[in-house]
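Write out the 3D structure for:
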Amino acid sequence: MLAVLDVVLTALDLYSYVIIGAAILSWLVAFGVVNVRNDFVRNLWNFATAITEPALAPIRRFLPNLGGVDISPVILLLLIFFAKDLILRYVYPHAF
């Protein structure tokens, strides 16, 4: 059981890194630092969007319009940190 929880915690860590990377990539694309016409950047953008959008879309529907500021990655990261804390405090000590 502990091995399964370790895998879940590692997956949550990796997903949080992907969310941060996707947010940074979106800033770089928005400010014109990287060009989406580049094949590598386009593949990276498609991967990041495909991985993060299913979790970010429901949060974006729930949030009000903030005028071009997207705080949905921050909220998703807070939810991931909360889930990790719940697992570490309540599930992990009682797993055998």
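Residues 30 and 68 are 11 Å apart (CA to CA).
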